[in-house]
Amino acid sequence: MYANIETITGDCDGRHYHEAVCTMNESEKNDPCGDLDFFDRVLSYTVNTVAEYGTLTIARIDGLPRFVWSEDTEEGYKQVTAEFYKY
User: How many other CB atoms sit within 10 Å of the CB of residue 24?
Assistant: First the structure.
């Protein structure tokens, strides 16, 4: 299993885009419940816990979660989307 993490930010300089792939580590791969640990780890990357306000949306696509975090920033906005896929 892996997660595609897409970050979009916007400010006075325009729109910025970044994409990354996160894979399960060895501990998560070898644990029968490792997929839950992987979801938790990716969620911790997705959500900004120091933001004053933000919105987290969780949906299921083909049985796997999709996390979308949106927040307003001092200069604009930020949106992070994490989608999970099976190999």
Answer: 19
